[in-house]
């Protein structure tokens, strides 16, 4: 577990997810003063000599949120190049269905959103260097939320379309016991065994056909379930993330604490994918 956590923390995507989770937790605390006051009271009771002001603590947490946001944007500085590359690969692929076109739209919008985040990083960091000025940078950052919302919407539609296509392509057994191909192969093996070895050969052939049929059924079901689970997690994460740009644009009125809760849930869902990837990588190294 410790090795997997180290691998997750040193992974660039995993590190960004950890910072996002911390930022979301701080957002929840600052949006619910009663919860923050309870934590401050608990901290004060554990250390009577320390006097903690709730207002100053909230201000410090808000400043820490901004710093975490800038740190995450710095990590994602060139991620928009990967989005554009993925979009181009999907666009130049030969067989393009609805899922591919939705992927092109989603990755292109993600790339444009990431590009806007990168070019306004210096202005929003307020370190003395500016490209557009604080007012123009804030306006560009606000308008970039539309691109993020479009990207999430297209990504969610693409995940839903892939899930439907996956369920539609699920093999249907010709009988209640298994796949038709495996059953036919079992019959052929049974007849051949009967011709060569008699009754004992027929029994062994039927047993081998049954085992092969069961293995084929389990492998197919496990593969479909794994793909459907990954697509379902991605779909839910995209839907939860849509709350963030929609609330920033003022299109929906959502409490800031609920935005933080949605942010926590989507971060856990997407972080779980990175966590599993790190686990598989460690297993390959063993």
TrEMBL record:
Record's Gene Ontology CC terms?
peroxisomal membrane
* Region: Disordered, residue numbers: 183-222
- Basic and acidic residues bias spans: 189-208
Q: Where are the transmembrane segments?
A: 21-43, 100-125, 146-168, 257-275
User: Which GO biological process categories is it annotated with?
Assistant: peroxisome fission
Q: Where in the cell is it found?
A: Peroxisome membrane
Keywords tagged on the record: Membrane, Peroxisome, Peroxisome biogenesis, Transmembrane, Transmembrane helix
Q: Per its UniProt entry, which superkingdom is the organism in?
A: Eukaryota
Q: What is this protein called?
A: AoPex11B-like protein
